[in-house]
Design brief:
Layout: H1 5-14, E1 22-28, H2 36-46, E2 51-55, E3 59-60, H3 63-74, E4 78-84, H4 90-106, E5 109-113, E6 122-125, E7 129-133, E8 137-138, H5 139-143, E9 147-153, H6 155-169, E10 172-174, H7 177-183, H8 186-198
Parallel strand pairs: 2-4, 3-8, 4-5
Antiparallel strand pairs: 1-9, 2-6, 5-10, 6-7, 7-9
Helix pairs in contact: 2-3, 3-4, 4-8
Length: about 200
């Protein structure tokens, strides 16, 4: 005998509620009009009020995004960048040095993840908006590659991912004064200069 509608009602009432997060999916690539991924980051960084956290294997931002991050750090926003100590792309590791050094000088917090290659690609803005997906914060992801990310506007999701990143910080090395001094040697400055010039091609 089929169950009556009355017997089904309690089951429906006990079903979990759908979450309240707002999610926007952004795709980019050579066949997309404009640069939607880059435009998304520009909007998020421009509207930052308190904090920006970036976790990425490759960190070679374009001039606009880099300027927005430096400006946010100078303005007292908590800017945090986490990259692997060594990625699988040595040239990109060299190219990122100039950007990370200048961000540190602006007051940003830089972490080098030690155990393994860091594959996560995450951005959290103001502990309320989360970006997760396939895109690195480098020029190929921003302007050339096919990428897809989800922009999640939900403080709960952002807090959960923020707690995960905080755990990774215990396995990371901070960009210290000693590392800074070593990067300012003649050899270090030469490497930075050459890497900075070729970074748009990487």
């Amino acid at each position: 005998m089929p169950p009556s509608s009355a017997s089904l009602s309690p089951t429906r009432e006990r079903s979990p509620r759908v979450g309240q997060a707002r999610v926007e999916v952004i795709s980019s690539g050579p066949d997309c009009e404009g640069d939607p991924l880059w435009e998304t980051y520009v909007k998020l960084f421009s509207n930052c009020k308190r904090s920006i956290t970036v976790v990425t294997p490759y960190f070679v931002p374009d001039r606009t995004l880099f300027t927005l991050l430096v400006t946010a750090a100078h303005a007292g926003r908590h800017v945090k960048i986490m990259v692997p100590r060594r990625s699988d792309h040595r040239l990109l590791d060299l190219a990122r040095r100039w950007y990370l050094r200048n961000l540190r000088e602006a007051g940003a917090e830089i972490h080098f993840f030690k155990p393994d290659v860091l594959h996560a690609k995450l951005v959290i803005v103001d502990e309320e908006q989360l970006v997760v997906g396939s895109a690195n914060l480098d020029m190929r992801s921003l302007f050339l590659n096919y990428e897809i990310v989800a922009v999640v506007r939900d403080p709960v999701a952002a807090a959960e991912v923020g707690a995960l990143i905080a755990g990774w910080e215990t396995e990371s090395t901070r960009y210290t004064e000693d590392l800074y001094r070593r990067s300012r040697t003649l050899t270090g400055r030469l490497i930075e200069a050459v890497s900075k010039v070729i970074s748009p091609l990487l």
